[in-house]
Amino acid sequence: MGTVRSPWRADDDHAPTFRFVTVEETRLRYLDCGSGQPVVLLHGNGSMIEDFLSSGIIERAAPDHRFIAFDRPGFGHSDRPHGRSWGPGDQATLLCRALRKLGIERPIVVGHSWGALVALAMGLLEPEFVSGLVLMSGYYYPVAGAKPFMLPTAFPFASDVVRHTVVPFMRRLMAPDTLRRVFAPCAVPDRFRRTYPLPLALRASQMRAVDEEAAMLPDVTAAFRPLYRELRPPVHLIAGSDDRIVETDVHSARLHQDLSASTFHRVVGCGHMVHHAVPDDVAAAIAQVRDRAGQGRGARPRHRAPRRQWLHIGDSAVAA
């Protein structure tokens, strides 16, 4: 892994290099590059824009796409104000407003892991705004007795003092093992090791967001499950056959069955980080969804709007 700098100096060592947009008093960092069909990239829990940058999918899907990648609220350099819910629906609403502010229309939304839930919420809440979805390695259903994956030493009950002292130190020590598990059975790519700002991911504020998102998974997926059949944008699912974080048969394969018009690519011998293992396949999925969305434009069925109160769920809220 090389030298891991102290997480306390993360903001100094990894200053923002991209742009910011402020929506609802929440400042979001984003990357905007290329031209053509807009593609929005939403990272998983504990990650940030640099995950997608190091994967290579932007280069492979160029030159006829415009990529907009966000640090989701609380991750990377984006804000996550206290005192409000940050469930997938809340993030989806915020990001759709940010995209409109940037002049983005009809994007394909690509979500990885927890970001796939935000992408789904965008498709449910804004079916006429979203062109299509590419969902990678997502966790979509409540599983009895299952404990969602949380990074080592994730302490939802920890005081701020512990978060800023003991927890960052322990996570710093455990980070290499965590990365190996997330990428397994594939190796951690050299490009990821060289370019991903790990100290930024180990900050206390980001770890708090990690804990919150892991804790809300059971309630969120229970609320989403009745709504999947209402999804109208075209969906392409990608997941690894050997994912050690999220069981592919329990989640991606099942969602494919529930979405009659979806397509599903199971990547044999791959784990959770499919966008790193098969970036060409992800680029192909984006092109496929773009073509399907183009064929269906002008003939979109009328449908009942989803119950929005189900989609705005935080770590302590319940579905209405």
Which characteristics define this entry?
320 residues; alpha/beta; Rossmann fold; eight-stranded mixed beta sheet; 40% helix; disordered C terminus
Q: How big a fraction of the residues is strand? A: 5-15%
| Arithmetic mean of pLDDT | 84
Quickly count the domains: 1
| SS element count, helices | 14
**What is the helical fraction, as a range of percent?**
40-55%
CATH H-level superfamily:
Alpha/Beta hydrolase fold, catalytic domain
Radius of gyration: 18 Å
Structural class: alpha/beta
Q: List segments where confidence is low: pLDDT < 50 over at least 5 consecutive residues.
A: 1-16, 150-159, 161-168, 298-307, 313-320
Supply the CATH architecture: 3-Layer(aba) Sandwich
Q: For the report, how would you describe the main beta sheet?
A: 8 strands, mixed
Q: State the CATH topology.
A: Rossmann fold
Order of strands in the sheet with most strands: 1-2-4-3-5-6-7-8
- Element pattern in H and E: HEEEHHEHEHEHHHHHEHEHHH
Please report the first level of CATH classification, the CATH class: Alpha Beta
How far is it from the N-terminal to the C-terminal residue, by CA? Answer: 46 Å
Tell me the overall shape. Answer: globular
Count of β-strands: 8
